[in-house]
Amino acid sequence: MFGGGKKAQTKKFKASQIATVIGHGTTITGDVSFTGGLHLDGTVKGCLSANEDSTATLTISEQGSIEGNVKVANVILNGAVVGDVYASGRVELAAKARVTGTVYYNLLEMTMGAEVNGQLKHVDEDEPRMLNYFAGDDFSDADDTAVIPKRRAKADAK
């Protein structure tokens, strides 16, 4: 009944080779962009992103922290992030992981003890994205033919 059929095949995740290390006691103020693998034991006060590389991996240790948004294909987190996390690949939240913000993920692994103080939002790479969305727009009576927020539709009618 259970497990008698074929086993689900999942790709084995292999993190990128670490090319950059930000050591414990180091604080970087400003945005950081990288390729390949980055291991963070220090603090980044700014946004952290990887170039368009589907194998790019960010590893944040227990001592590591980021105050800003993160946009990387793969994230292995055991430290703290205050900001949103955007991962097109996978997110691994270890036992001491702390996120204050929204986590956008394709695949998620969360160990007991990890905290997300915000939202978890699953996104597919093939999922269509809405452009020009403004906070406060009301879509309550939009039909299937066009998605135009009420506030913007009223402004366009004038």
Q: How would you portray this structure in words?
A:
The chain is mostly beta strands. The chain has two domains: 18-122, no CATH class; 128-158, no CATH class. Helix content is 5%, strand content 37%. It contains one helix and 18 strands. The chain has one helix spanning 150-157, and strands at residues 18-22, 27-29, 32-34, 37-40, 43-45, 48-50, 57-60, 65-67, 70-71, 74-77, 80-82, 85-86, 90-93, 98-100, 103-105, 107-110, 115-117, 120-122. The strands form three sheets. It has a six-stranded parallel sheet, with no helix packed on it. Strands 2-5-8-11-14-17 form a six-stranded parallel sheet, with no helix packed on it. The longest helix is centred in the last third of the chain and has 8 residues, at 150-157. The radius of gyration is 19 Å and the shape is globular. The relative contact order is 0.11.
